[in-house]
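Handout, tutorial session.
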Amino acid sequence: MAGRFTPRTPAVPRRQPVPGQGRAPAPSRARIWTPPGPLDLRLVLGPLRRGPADPTYRALPDGTFWRASRTPDGPGTLRVSAAPDGRIDAAAWGPGAGWLLDTLPALLGAGDDTGAFRPRHRLVALTHHRRPGLRLLRTGLVLESLIPSVLEQKVTTDEAYRAWRLLVRTHGTPAPGPADGLPGGHGLYVMPDARTWALIPSWEWHRAGVDAKRSATILRAVRVARRLEEAAAMDLPEATARLQLIPGIGPWTAAETLQRSNGAADAVTVGDLHLPGIVGYALAGDRNAGDEEMLALLAPYEGQRHRAARLILLSGRTPPRRAPRASPRDIAPL
């Protein structure tokens, strides 16, 4: 369905009221889109959230979702909510507003071929039936998923989320529009551009708890940012190969990135600490499964292995925890 657009409004002060409490500035553009089937915004957009205080993402109790992105046209803020009749109401602000609204259907899984999925296990079939609104998103933006995925390499999620939060708030830019008035204590931020990432000094990486190996991987990636962004238009094998040309980016990081940037239904995450055991326990009762066993269990879902893995995670059938949680590391002082 064609978008519905509203004219631009004059510039407004940075500090804005919380939505619903006074008048917020009108969006640069707006759009209403009707999805081709059931759509659960929480399930679709959830993979974009990097921790409860992600400065680029906010989910409100009323079912409204906010996202700040650095698009090919510049920074932009997107607000998305679902109407009772199933239509999606979206608005956007900033230089990237048009790009965000033009790519809204792809972001929300319009290109996701859900009909290609055939459950082969009772647990997967039941979860698939109970989650009809699950679609695999596609942002079309590689770097914004690659960098936080690199930060998550071989550390606890809390460490990675803290690093992402500190680096984006320190070196990013406030999101355009009214997003700085959202509840939660902090406004939204757009992540830094490639040049700004490249100029972050070593002590800032250290302050964020990022070791030299991960920061060096990010620095190598941003130097060829344009070439990496081209992977968003590639098929999965070519996109994976393109990302893995960068030293420090392996199968785990490539899969975690392409699941989001490309909506890659078959980008199964190998090399993960927990996923093989979860899949093994859910499908075969084997909590000690490794990557080889996981891939064998997911083989019937060839072409849709990431979707199958997501459904397994959503089923809630996970092995009981035995080992204590990993403790955050203290990287060596400068």
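The second record follows below. Compare its token runs with those of the first.
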Amino acid sequence: MNDDVSRNLVVFRLKGFDEPVMASAPTQAEDAVEQAWANIRQQHKVRGSAVSAVYSEWQPSAADRKFMAKHFRKAECTYSFARPAPGEWERAFAEARAVMAETQEARQEEVLPVLWSTSSPRAGLLDALPHQPLVPGRLSVALAVVSRTPQGKIGMQHITRHQHEQMGTPPLEDLFGVGYQSLARGLKFEVRRSGEDTLVSVARENLMAASALALPDLYAQLTQHLGAGELLVGLPCPDEMYIARAESGLAATIREQVLGSPYETTELVPSVLRLGPGGMELLAERDR
């Protein structure tokens, strides 16, 4: 379910495709489904006759229903939220947000990015996982299904290449996009200032905060608090991240805390990195 009520998620079941494909369009647009289909048609080079079912998060407008009747003649259409009358969108959005919040609270599993150090004792497993480099030869990101048991314990099942094939081998960019969206939910940037120095800590109630290092827009988000230039990032464990400007007096403190981290080595070895507009560099790792 899409968390942004201003965007209508539309899912198409296509003949010959093992998995459904999806796109989004402005929720209030009278042609939201038609816009979403235009994106799918361009991306996958398919015709309307290939559509066997359509799910629109919001009930299609009269214009969209007419469009679907013409182009998806045999397709079944379902939706979750009724389309409100003109002038009632704010009320409908508020009700939808409440439903989404309840759904999120009840959710026990999510796909999340996981950081992997090539120096980790577990690094040999990385060959069996679809992954992308963050620092070539030193640090990568893969995906895992992370679940929380009723007792509060965390379980993690890494997504393997075989499982990726069973999914129909969707583009890795799409698969990682799902993980990044899951991670971003509940991610918080806490800013503390001491004199001229600023420390940003990244926290996430459902853990894995350090994986925010892989987010494509992380540097842009951090510069809102720290300004442009070189940043020093400390990852003392998979669930914590601390950032300061590279020339800040706090940079040495972050480095000391990471290299002296008491956390057990998992997929990630506690690491210190430099992050800037040109990318990232691994500066140091704790002795394993």
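Points raised in discussion: The chain has three domains: 7-105, 109-184, 187-285.
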